[in-house]
Write a structure and sequence with these properties.
Elements lengths: L15 H8 L3 H4 L11 H18 L4 H13 L10 H11 L2 H10 L1 H7 L6 H13 L1
Helix pairs in contact: 3-4
Length: 137
């Protein structure tokens, strides 16, 4: 007779199955409890994002001196993980936007994100024509 396998547990004593269930945010049910911040590029965009974070931190009761440090870091700091403005980022964008089929697949894959978060759908014809022209020059 084989021994019945014991459920694997994590260091905190919870089962892996229970842990997986706890990680989900039930986004659909809790959507109205979230504050959505959309990334914006450029100096003006970064200032907008920093202001949105500051508003949230103010609501959460974060002291002004802590908020000032966070805002300063958001406005001047870049992390080693930042991809904005890098050569690799521009190359990948060019690959994506110059391949209409790939762009269409990515748009379909993230269709509900476009809807839920109010992102503007890419104009596939305009974008692919623009990038096809720029790759030929």
């Amino acid at each position: 007779m084989k021994a019945r396998p014991r459920p694997s547990t994590l260091p905190n004593g919870s089962s892996k199955v229970g842990y997986r269930k706890q990680r989900y945010c039930n986004f659909k049910e809790n959507f109205n409890d979230f504050i959505i911040i959309k990334y914006e590029s450029g100096h003006r965009g970064i200032r907008n994002v920093a202001s949105q974070f500051d508003d949230i931190f103010t609501l959460a009761g974060v002291p002004s001196h802590h908020r000032a440090v966070i805002r300063k870091e958001m406005l001047v700091g870049r992390t080693i993980h930042s991809t904005s403005g890098t050569t690799l980022r521009r190359h990948v964008e060019m690959l994506l936007y110059s391949n209409r089929t790939l762009l269409q697949m990515i748009t379909q894959l993230y269709y509900y994100d476009f809807i839920v978060f109010g992102f503007k759908f890419p104009n596939l014809t305009e974008i692919s024509q623009r990038y096809e022209t720029s790759t030929r020059s």
